[in-house]
Amino acid sequence: MSSNSLPITEEAIVRALQDPKSCIGKSDAWWFSFIKILRFERLLSLFAFRCEELDLLVSFPLVVQGHLKNALIMAQRQADHLKYEVSLLSDSIKTVTPQCLYLKGAAYCLANMTVSKGRLFSDIDVLVPKECLDKIEKSLLFKGWLSKPINDYDERYYREWAHEIPPLVQSRRGTVVDIHHNLVPPISGKAPDIEAFLSQTMHVNGVTVLKPHAMLLHSCIHLIFNETFKQAHRDLYDISSIIKDYGNSTFWDEAIRLAKETGFYKELFLGCRYSSKKLGYELPPKLTVDVPYTSAKLMLLDLVMLKALSPHHPLCKAPGRGVANFLAWARGHWCKMPLMLLIYHLSIKSGRALAQSIWGKHIFDAEGTPK
Amino acid sequence: MALSSFVLNTHPFSFRVSTDIEQIVESVKLLYCDAVEWDSRISLPSYEIEIKHASLARKLFKPQSQFFCDQREPFLPMPIDKCLAMFEWGLNWVVSAHEFRHVILHSAVLAKGDKAVLFPAPPGSGKSTLTSWLSHNGWRLLSDEMALMTPNTTQVTPFVRPICLKNNAIALAKEWFPDGRFSHISPNTHKGDVIHLSPPQVSWHERFNTAEVVAIVYPQYSTGTFCDIYELTKAEAFSTLTANAFNYGVLGGTGFTTLTNLVEKCQTFEVKYNNLEELQSFLENDVL
Questions:
Q1: What is the ipTM of this complex?
Q2: Which of residues 87-146 of B touch A (CB under 8 A)?
Q3: Beta-carbon count within 10 A of B157 CB
Q4: What are the pLDDT digits (tens) for A24-67?
Q5: Which of A240, A282, A217 shows the shortest CA–CA distance to A46?
Q6: Nearest residue on chain A to B99, judged by CA atoms?
Q7: Of B105, B108, B221, B219, nearest to B167 (Cα)?
Q8: Does residue B239 sit at the A interface (CB-CB below 8 Å)?
């Protein structure tokens, strides 16, 4: 980190995204840090999109305009390319099963929702019936979708305990697809009867996606039911955007009912709570009065999670975040795995981390054998 | 060495560099001439990069260098004697990973006045040897590595940086340009031995001036051929151009229209040669 990098607070980042006009006249050093933080948090194109809507780009320094234009081009390209890729994927999957449900970023974009504007995604998430996984993987193999090389331990993690198979990469175009059969790992004991979600879908622009209230719930599950919060800050914006566009009374009734039915009310509660606290908006009383925690436990959770969900770029300083990240990481694992398996998993991962901290993180090759 | 920091004011992208490797500072001083600003606080650079020694244990045992662009590390660490090659390829990576305002072609670009010729070619075709020759014989270098095309025009923006010469070309260039500013050799990289050569002053001075592309020439060094010239059809020229485009995929439709417009407006040739003077005379008398 060079000595002339200027730290920026989380509040300033949130304010700039909500009111891009407030960035006019900021110093060069501020812009430099701001752009790095947004790019790292995958929020640069969202900021660029909001600035373009307000016709603000010309008010910023030339170098900044350059970065924002690049981010807009990239986001537009991803959106265009997604439609092409999905049409090919759907064709392959539909030779095996009619059930092909797109999730998260891909779904927002295919349904042309506000939340997709300026939102980058690193992969395409799709949910299919578990019994069709083998056949689908084989049919995609013929179209050039290959598994990334991973070590035996990770392979076993995916195949035996996870809710998805290892990511497949399109060998010519580099697109990555994550094929799920559930929304959370079955090993956690919390995997819902997936039919509950499958009954909450809609058809739009030729594809099947979750209805907005189910999207909200999935986004909250994805945010809270996790052990790493490294790039989770962006998810808070997803949640806020879905609520802003669809959050009427029926929407909330359906979201709460689905959350309780599938055992994810805590995730819905926490996801919405932290998004609204961080980005400063109101939630309806029907969610906020029904608190699924004792007040002491909620205080403790707030303490940890509000820190863990801050931007993680080193220039965005939050004292005590290291400890919070560790606690949030431990909690995430605790939710996902039974105790004995957790001890086994962590002993393997920490042995590797130790070797990497001494010899550099490239000591293992992709298959996990030391070089 | 303590951490030192400087800005490479290479148009149109600039880089703030932090490094604890002495060899990088020395090489940059030699190669980048007045495009280096040693007071790194004075401007808003496009990108910030770090190239530094790997972990403490690795400083003592088989020392390595690591390249970072903010929090990202695009490459595996490399032995310290290849740090300059890693640095130069790292800058190329930063540009091709982030910049979509130009259609970027893997091509050398040289010009006389404001008329430019693109030399797109895969590694091993003698492109950099040709680049070093022309840039020391009356042409100005816009780039040895990437042509930055303004979408839907024939305008090319210079991105002047050192020329990267490989293997046998190293001894040749040292013989041709005894006063050239050469870096040390980065030995045994995946491209073999490589050396960096600073282009002559005139190229640095004109690094802010765009040029218009008038021809695309695919060079292929061939020991047994004096100088054979083939005119390419537009379709052949186009398909070879797409094979040498970095961000053609990201730009989609814009990339396509830019490249079709370019091959339609330019003369397009393939040359097989072993004589640079002959090739230069063809370019100056028949192409420009």
A1: 0.89
A2: 98-101
A3: 21
A4: 999 999 999 999 999 999 999 999 999 999 999 999 999 999 99
A5: A240
A6: A70
A7: B221
A8: no
